[in-house]
Amino acid sequence: MPELPEVETVKNELLPYVVGHRITGVTLVWEGIVKEPSVKEFHSRIIGQEITGITRHGKYLVVSLSSGDLLIIHLRMTGSLIVGQDSSEPPKYTRAIIHLDNKTNIFFRDQRKFGIMRLVRDTKDIDNKLGPEPLEASFTPAVLTERLAKRTAPIKALLLDQKFIAGIGNMYADEVLYEARIHPQRTGGSLSREEVKRLHKAIQRILWAAIDNKGASVDTYFRPDGTEGTAHFQFKVAHGLGGKTCPVCGGPIERITVRNRGTYFCPKCQPEKV
DNA sequence: CCCGGAACCTGAAGGC
DNA sequence: TGCCTTCAGGTTCCGG
Predict the structure, then answer these.
(1) Per residue in A208-226, pLDDT tens?
(2) Of A31, A39, A138, A266, which is most buried with the most CB atoms under 10 A?
(3) SS3 state of residue A246
(4) Is the CB of A171 under 7 A from strand C?
């Protein structure tokens, strides 16, 4: 599942292949991947444009074009962007191919067809959906404290809410709460000052460590060169480690459901009552 | 605004 | 072997 560290890695590793190059064509193997504008207008506006940069907003990739248009890409759950040669066979589940003038193809693979592309003039509509970027300097413990105040939703649900904080998904939410020793069902507003500090630190440490490891290849995530990230080797609880042993207390990792999402945690190290 | 639940989608995995 | 059900989860929508 591409979350902030995976999307950040895709951005970083895609950049050298694409910046300064022109898009010579886009093959839409599945047209439904383009949400906006019409397929016809999408083609006419994107072909011939030079890629000038890529940024990340939460889990969104924003590819800037010389025309001023922005190509917004969201990989959702099973999407990946793989670099290949013009002559290479499209990987399985390829939904779109971006052809560049350097004989390079970007293959947009996506098993479940949830990923999207959108051509827009500005990023207002995605930025309005996103809370603070957790790795920016402006995301301080005080900011987190203020946002948690009076919230009655479980902390796990808040971490998954992109408007509360951008970029965290199901895997990293579990890892962060484990690291912070906070039970996923605790309500946001009930966290002590000490717990909020631990949570803030855990968010930044877990996400930076995952970026250092080029993301977690637990499902269908691959780096643009087709290799796997290694962040999942550091997971203590997330993604199917239920039943395994907590590395700290030796007790079993449990699985519960929070907001219809599989949630892994250690009941001993993350007690419900403090 | 806040909260929770369901829907969207498709392939993998498990039960029988 | 094969049919059927269940599960996975980022985002969006809807109801209270």
Answers:
(1) 999 999 999 877 789 999 9
(2) A266
(3) coil
(4) yes
